[in-house]
Structures are given as C-alpha cells and as structure tokens.
Amino acid sequence: MTDYKPLVRYNSFRNSIIFPSRVASGLLPDFAAAVNIWQKRKRGNSLILDFSNVDKAFANGMLGVIAIVTELRRQGSVVDIHLPTTESARTFFATTSWTHLLNPAYKDGYKPNRKHFVKHFGSFEEIPPIINHFMEIIIGHIQMPKDVLAALEWSITEICDNVINHAESETGGFLQVIAYPQNDLVAFTVADAGKGILQSLKEGVPALTTDLEAIEEAIKVGVTRNKNAGQGNGLAGTLRITTMTGGSLDILTGTGRLLLEKEDQRTFNSSTKRFPGTCVSGQIKMSHEFSVVEALSFGPIDYTPYTIVDAKYEKEEEDALYFKVSEQVEGAGTRAAGRELRIKVLNLLNAKPDYPIYVDWEDVGIIASSFADEFLGKLFVEIEQSKFESIIRPINMNEIVEHIISKAITERSATG
C-alpha cells in the first residue's frame, strides 16, 4: 500500500508551508494540518506560505486558505507569502485580491479586477451592499434567465447569512463570485474559519457526532440550530438550485466533505485532518428550464423572487425600468464598456420582458463609436427593430451622442 502524500506540506527547515501546482478545495484539510504542525513545533510567530509552484488556483481552495490565514493574523501570527513564479498565476493572485488578503503589507502594483476580486464581510449590515456589488458585475458579464438571476442572488445571500448567524467566526467570512460566459455558468465560494457546521448544529441536534452527519442534516429542509436564527433552508435551497440548474455544490467543514453534481448523486468523504471552518462552493448553470419557485417553495407558501432588478432598476411610478449610463460604466469610450451595458440590458429584459427601459444619458457629453456599436448597435440587431424601438427609451440625450448612436445602428444593421 502506497503511503498518502499530503497535497500541502510543512517544511521545518524553511519554516514554510509549500503548495502544489494546483490549489482547490481538496487540499484545505492538508493545509490546516500543516498549520497545526507549525504551531506544535513552536518555530516562532512567523510563517511563510510558499505558492511558488502554483500555476492554477481556484476560489474554492484559496478562500479557505485566506480564512485560516486571517484568523492566524488575528491571533498575532505574522504570515508572509512567496508568490507564484509564473506570471499568469501571479497576476491572478493580485487582481483577485488574494495577495492583499494573504498579506496586507504586500505591494504588487496590480489593480484588483472588479469582475472577480474577493469581498470580506463581518456583519449582517455588510452583506447587502456586497451582494449588490457582485450582482451588478455579474449581470453585466453573462446573460442569465430571470430565474437563474434570482437563484444566484438568493444563494449567495443565504450562505453569507449563515456565516454571521452560525459560524461565530471572529474574522467573518469571504465571498467570491465569478462568471464564466464561455462555460455558461457562475461559480461562487463562501469561506470562514468559524466553529463549523457540526458544532453549530449540535445546539439544535445534540445527537450529531461527526461532520458528515452534520452536513447530511444541514442540507435537509428546515434544519437549523435555532429557529430564531433562521429557517434552516440556506444549504437545502442552494443544493436544489445548483443541482436543478445542472451545476454542482461542494461543502467542506471539519473532517467532512460533500460533493453533489446531481441531487441524487452525492459523494461523502471523511478525512483524518480537520479544516477549522466551513467552505461552500457552488456552480449555477444558465438553465432556461430551471424554476426558482419550484426550487425554493419549501412549504405551503410559494417563494416570490425579488432581485436587484426589482430593488434598483424598477421605477416606482410606473411598470418600467430605468438607469443612468454615467452610473453604469467607467466611461463610455470602450467596446468592453459597451458590451457590459448591452449584456446588462438583455438581463433586464429577461427579468422584466414587458417593461420599457428608460436609458438616461444625462452627464454623457460624448461617446466612442465602438461603445455605441457594442452597446446599441448590436442590441438593435439582437432584439430586432420593432422591439428595440418599443422597449429602449433614451432620455436626456444630446445631439452629438444621438448622431453617433444613429450612425452605429445604421452601420450595424447593414452588416448584421
């Protein structure tokens, strides 16, 4: 029998923890064990995390590492990092803000990429603006059926609420949401270094003895440590959402892990090593057959979706949507900004098919032809002229902008 070789190992000579080429959720128990070895050997109060060999890293692994490192730093430890040697991996560490979260003193010169950088939260009050931040970005980067839009917002809200409600983590939690348009899915990860699902649920279900039992209990409808702290449907609903859309769910806590690719295909794994906290990772596919009402109606009352579209874009005085161009994109001079706005409008149309959309051009003095083509030229062709003219209602547009847009639509219509 071959001895098991840990994915992550502690090097006492260098006083460092060395990571393999790929960082994902499966190595988190090994990482936690390596931290324990370092603490037991009492090699001082400083530790190095060596990511030199890493060429591929995923949020479902990195956020768990960040949660533990943040807790170590809270306890007074000094943690330094060696970044990946490959340029692409090193850049991704910086633009996701992983570098900064692992070592706030690290100055690397890269600007965080708002499409995929991590947000930290430590209270209920911090969650809504963080969710709104991610939803604003997501609806500008991938077209989503309205039920999937509602399901994504519900899932990440519930899982973040669970951290504050149940984890009792001194350092709060971490959320990362990334759209993968080429794969037609959105992936999210929420991680904390709290007490884990078992210790939380034992308050309401004292008979539980293992982390796997706790996970199995937690994904049942209505199971919670305390009904005053929540209805206990967060993980159950997220499980149904991810699997019913054709996605997946990964729950890691303590020594237990659950992988689900379909609701009736569950893989439970138990480790001899313990991850101190919880890491929940989900993938939601852009399924047009998915029904969020079916997924989240747990009792006699049907679930009623309420999303960022209702909260931010719907006009109070009429059945219509509204947004200001100047508040949606960073300048109107690039094709990328036009593409983001076009995808956002398509998502608004998906969410409210019969609502007109008022596009307010106030404070926009001029736009680039490439922006006009990518935003409204392509939109005109995509949704067809009659719908475009009845749905898209520009207001406060000056003559220069109107001329550029009219030219872009004419040229795009001619070329298709």
What does this structure look like?
The chain is α/β, with parallel strands linked by helices and 416 residues long. 42% of the residues lie in helices and 21% in strands. It is built from 16 helices and 14 strands. The protein has helices spanning 28-41, 59-74, 87-95, 98-102, 127-138, 146-167, 196-201, 211-218, 234-244, 292-296, 308-313, 325-328, 335-351, 369-383, 385-391, 399-415, and strands at residues 9-11, 16-18, 22-23, 46-50, 56-57, 78-82, 119-121, 173-180, 185-192, 248-262, 265-285, 321-324, 357-360, 392-395. The strands form four sheets. It has a five-stranded antiparallel beta sheet, sandwiched between helices. A four-stranded mixed beta sheet has the order 1-2-4-6. The chain has a three-stranded parallel beta sheet with strand order 12-13-14. Helix 5 packs antiparallel against helix 6 (146-167) and helix 14 (369-383) packs across helix 15. It is globular, with a radius of gyration of 24 Å. The N and C termini lie far apart (63 Å).
